[in-house]
Amino acid sequence: MHKILRKRILNPAVEEIVVEAPYVARKCQPGQFIIIIVEEGGERIPLTIADFNREEQSVTMIYQVVGHSTQLLQQKNVGDYLSDVAGPLGLPCVDHKPKKVIGIGGGVGAAPLYPQIKMHAENDTEIDVVLGGRSADFVILQEEFSKLSKNVFVATDDGSLGTKGFVTNIVQKLLDEGNRYDEIIAIGPIPMMKAVVNVVKPFDIPISVSLNPLMVDGTGMCGGCRVSIAGKTKFACVDGPDFNGYDVDFDEITSRQGMYKDQENGHNCRIGL
Ligand code: FES
C-alpha cells in the first residue's frame, strides 16, 4: 500500500499527487514511468514520473482525469492509500551532459519533460524551455521550469498566456534567430511532436520524443504498445518511451490510436501525456 503524501490541482482536468513508493524512488531515473493500481483488483494505469525524492522515498505523478480509473484516483486524498505502484518501467533517458538543450512540453507533456530538464539543470547545461497548451489553464509547471531556466517561453492557442499560437512558432523563431542546441526534447500530443520534428529537421539537431501508445502490461509481453521506429517494430514500454524523433512513424501511431479510441476511453495510454 502506498500513502498519498500531497495532492495539488493543476487545472480542472489535471492533478498532481506525491506518493510513498520507496523502491521506485530509490531506482527511478528521468524518462521512466510507473504502473499504478488505485484499488485492489482495479485497472492498471501507466503514469509518467514527474519527479522523485530519494530521501522522502516518494514519487510525484501528474495525470489527466480521463476515465473511470483516473476518476477513482481523483477521489483519493492526502492520507489515503494506493493499492500498487510498480516500476520503474521503460528505459531512462541518457545522461550525456550536452552544452545547450531546449525542452518543449505540450499540455501534460510538461510532466515527463520536467525530470529530464531538471537532470540537465543539475549538470549546468544551458536550457531553454517552451511550454504550450490550448489556453492558460492547460499550461502546467511554468513556475517549476522557471527555477531551472531563465528562458521559459509559453504559447497558447487562444493567446490567454504567452504568445498566441503553437510551440512550433516559438521553436522556429528561436532557430531562425540563430539559437543552436545540442539536443531537443519534445513531449506532448503526437501531432505536436510530429510538428516539432518537422520544424527542427532542416537544422539537423538531435531530437528525442516520448511516445504514449496504448499500454497494458508494461513489460513487453502484450504487444499493445508497439510502434515503428526506423522501420522496425519496437515496444514503447521496454524500448522507450523516449525515441529518436526522426525515426518515429507518427502516422502509424495516430492511426492505431484512432483504432482503439472507443475501447480505450482514455484508460490505458500513459496518462501523463
Ligand atoms: Fe504490453 Fe508494452 S504494454 S508490450
TrEMBL record:
The residue ranges of the FAD-binding FR-type domain are 1-95
What name does the UniProt record give this protein? 2-polyprenylphenol hydroxylase
Which organism does this sequence originate in?
Answer: Draconibacterium sediminis
